[in-house]
Amino acid sequence: MKKYLLTLAIASVAFLSACTKAEKEIASAALTETADASKTIGTAKFYELSDGKIRMDLEMNFASRADSNVAVHFHEHGDCGDMGMNTHGHWNPTKENHGKWGSAAYHSGDIGNIMLDNKGQAKISITTDRWSVKEGDLKNIIGRGIIVHGGTDDYVTQPTGNSGPRVGCGVIEAVK
Ligand SMILES: [Cu+2]
Ligand SMILES: [Zn+2]
């Protein structure tokens, strides 16, 4: 009996440490069409990595936009009303110019253009230290809107990239 309990104890410790090592999902956003919020077009999931950075896995499934290059940005507000206009402008906590992700200057949610295949599907991952989920942190992404545009970001026009209409929208929510 004692030996059995010891084995059980070792097994639970191994299980617990495996859990703490795994990436933790900390936030997510369900993207829907702005014209019809019952139509899901994608999902963004956010994971906290062991080095403190955050990774977003974005999966698009937007059949009506198949074979097109669509711009994706984080916008200021988590309100998809009025065809996405209620999200207001690009979230810009660092007061930089709009630009291409990874270039000299860009907004912290300038995800950029995503090429959808002939089914309207795409998958991208981005890892960054520009985001956090801490309350009161300038970098906090919780409650921000994610907008999918009907056009392509030129990465130059200020402050929007001239990306066209807002065809998809979601709100980044904490996963507890
Ligand atoms: Cu935008
Ligand atoms: Zn921008």
Automatic annotation (TrEMBL):
Does this entry carry the keyword Oxidoreductase?
Answer: yes
Give the cofactor note text.
Binds 1 copper ion per subunit. Binds 1 zinc ion per subunit.
Is Nucleotide-binding included in the keywords of this UniProt record? no
EC class, as a word, reads: oxidoreductase
What reaction is this protein's catalytic activity? Answer: 2 superoxide + 2 H(+) = H2O2 + O2
Which cofactors must be present for this protein to function? Cu cation; Zn(2+)
Which InterPro entries has this protein been placed in?
SOD-like_Cu/Zn_dom_sf, SOD_Cu/Zn_/chaperone, SOD_Cu/Zn_BS, SOD_Cu_Zn_dom
Question: What does the UniProt keyword field contain?
Answer: Copper, Metal-binding, Oxidoreductase, Signal, Zinc
| First and last residue of the signal peptide | 1-18
Highest taxon of the source?
A: Bacteria
Q: Which EC number applies?
A: 1.15.1.1
In this chain the Superoxide dismutase copper/zinc binding domain maps to 42-172
| Function, in words | Destroys radicals which are normally produced within the cells and which are toxic to biological systems.
Q: Which family does it belong to?
A: Belongs to the Cu-Zn superoxide dismutase family.
The identity of this protein, by name, is Superoxide dismutase [Cu-Zn]
Q: Which organism is it from?
A: Pedobacter ginsengiterrae
